[in-house]
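Sample 1 of the test manifest.
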Amino acid sequence: MTIDFWGLGLQAINVVILVWLLTRVFWRPVAAAIAKRHEAAQAILGDAAATKTKAEAALAELSEARDGIASERTRVLAQATASAEAAKAAALAEAKTQAAALMTSARATIAHETDAVRAKRVAQSGALAVEIAQKLLGRLPDEAIQVRFLDLLVEAIAALPASDRAALAKTKGGLDLLSPADLSASAKVKITKAVQQALEAVPELNFVTDPDLIAGFELRSAHFVLRNSWQADLAAILKELQHVS
Amino acid sequence: MNSPLESAALFQIGPVPITQAIVTTWVIMAVLVVGAYLLTRRLSLRPSKRQVALELLVDTLDTQIRETSGAQPAPYRGFIGTLFVFILAANWSSLIPGVEPPTAKLETDAALAVLVFISVIWFGVRGNGVGGYLKSFAAPNPVMIPLNMLASVTRVFSMFVRLFGNVMSGVFVIAIVASLAGLLVPIPLMALDLLTGLVQAYIFAVLAMVFISSTVEDGAHTPADLETSAKKKDS
């Protein structure tokens, strides 16, 4: 058995070279990769721990904020309820005021319109009454009507106080006697005679035609009127109606 | 059949005879270096399956070194890991027809043993200085200095003989069986030889680590320290 020392030495050198080469191309790179991955994992774990701490702090802050929000919500709700109640009361009061004003205005308007309607109806009633009276008069004989109204005039003069009759008799310029239509000469004489007898004097009579009288005779002076016509009667009726309604 | 104790030179480079074991070693070196380079070209933070396998290999080696020596694995990783990988590749090269493993030759195993012997001195001196390394021979007491000096030689010699005997015998037995019984009969023996090659590579690397770490540890304690610790253990 012989040992080849050249071969021994060469193999030793070969292994030393292999150790050197593999250390550089294999062991160190792989160990460095492991170390780098370990560092990266540690960094990630550190980041995760920091993130967890941050998240826990954020959670605590959020919980605190949530509690604050809840109390703020309760406070705002109470405030809003109070405001709504106040607004409701104010709106109700304003609505009542406005309703009262509207009702007052409506009542005034209704009263005004009622008065207007009433006046219009009174006027229409007067016109209707005049129309009815005219139609009725048209069916009656003029002589009978004049006789009747002359009698009424004489009775009215007789009913006057004696002082008034004397004052009428002494009226300067004479008395106006109003009739609804022109009178014939005989009718004028008859009327003049009846009036002078009733006044127990002979005043001058001026015959005036006034169609508004409808029917009847009226005696007028500068300071006195003795009404004796349907116009005066209707006016009295209308006045009474207005007073009653 | 040639004698396993003799190596025939294929050619000469000056005065240096180049044997088949040396050529095979060069081929194994080239394959390992190129393969390692190709495998470690694209290492990233998001590892591929290939990178995971490489990291598993390195991590396992680091764990073995740490458990064996209790020291940080970085200073020893290159030497111990390369010893293991080279011996394993050399042992398993016998599976290639016509290739005789370099570890079946005396010179290769002797070279590995010499490297372990030198590395023990190197790491001992680097760890504790020359004085610390020399103190390691006085453990547990100065009486043991001659024996420790003898042991530092014999233990690496035993490694060399163990590796050479196991690998050479496996190759020799397979060659004899193949020559006597036929082509397929040695296959179970070759499978067994695979296991033997793996175990021998592991044993050689672990023993090298044990020798290195024991020298470093012994050099770090004075004999007085060691006596004190022994008394404590006895009590």
